[in-house]
Amino acid sequence: MSLLFEELDYRPTPIGALSLRRRKDPISHQEYHEIILGDAFLMSSRFTVAEEELSTLGLAAVTGENLDIAVGGLGLGYTARAALKDTRVSSLLVVDALEPVIDWHRDGLLPVGRQLTSDARCRFQLGDFFALVASDDGLDLEQPGRKFDAILVDIDHSPDNVLDPQNLAFYAPSGLERMARHLKPGGVFALWSNDPPATDFEDALTRVFAATDSHVIPFKSPLNDVEETNTIYVGRI
User: Fold this and answer.
1) Per-domain residue ranges for the chain?
2) 3-state SS class at 165
3) In the CATH hierarchy, which fold is given to the domain comprising 47-236?
4) Contacts from 132-140 at CB under 8 Å and sequence distance 24+?
5) What does the alpha-carbon distance between residue 56 and residue 215 come to, in Å, rounded to a whole number?
6) What was the pLDDT predicted at 25?
7) Is the pTM of this model over 0.90?
């Protein structure tokens, strides 16, 4: 096995085989972690700007103190870590449907795992975010009916490029309305997308939220030295 590449874990899941890999850049010697689902590239620690901005922009739209925040999609943990940097956050519930991803954080196989697990404000929960948010009981299995100041989501590639076709219902106005029931008055929803702003999804947001915005986040890709962009959607009820 090359020192420039190592597979740290490989596990079957209900949606396909999941692989955690670590790479070392031969020029910079920096280490990167990446998660692969089947043959599809899911995420890499090379690109964390937009994942962090999901929390930064989402929480910037929230007023008040002692905030209760929910994150849909643990991933490599950068969205959750950025949320915990906001001193107003009193609790952070992170929901992920993939048990290996939660295990990798708890076992310290991912760079920010120890930071998250050592913060008393942060709790991981295994579960299907989309099914939970569509239910009357909501996201928190330990506190049915609980409401949040913000719900931040980074699961699918974009509103129309999803990991499971069933997820598409979430991005329709009816799905967003069901999700918004679990927000406190003045609560905020924020979503990461790999694609440019989509007019149809922006229209869906305006039908549910009183104020909306689409932020284009530029970053330079170290793979090809060109500027790329992600999108962060923000809606406030």
Assistant:
1) 5-43, 47-236
2) helix
3) Rossmann fold (3.40.50)
4) 132/95, 133/72, 133/170, 133/178, 133/179, 133/182, 134/169, 134/170, 134/175, 134/178, 134/179, 138/181, 138/182, 139/70, 139/72, 139/93, 139/95, 139/182, 140/70, 140/93
5) 12
6) 74
7) yes
